[in-house]
Amino acid sequence: FFGGFLKNNLAKDSRKFKAPSKTIVPPSDIDEGILDRFAENQKIVIESIRSMDKLDINKTVITSPFIRIMTYRLSDGLGIVVEHEKRHFRQARRVTAADGFPK
Fold first, then answer.
1. Do residues 56 and 48 lie in contact, with contact meaning Cβ atoms separated by under 8 Å?
2. DSSP string, 32-70
3. Taking the model in full, what pTM does it have?
4. Over 50: is that where the pLDDT of 23 sits?
5. Is pLDDT at 37 greater than 50 in this prediction?
């Protein structure tokens, strides 16, 4: 239940999810290195996913790193990660299309 719920809500941008910690959310100011950091993070995410190639992602159950009582299949967890990354791109589109954003 939890995996599908999170994945579907992230995909639709149907609701805002508040990050559980200020250490996870970068400051509002956009600095020059943000794209480089994002690209580096994508490499880490891709390598992490590749390292799971021997696991049965539909039978492996994981616990949410944020809400310990929430568990879901690894396949849902990977779907959540993908939708979360897509959400970053949608957010970037909104920011760069906003009035006052440097062209």
1. no
2. TTHHHHHHHHHHHHHHHHHTTTTS-TTT-EEE-SS-TT-
3. 0.65
4. no
5. yes
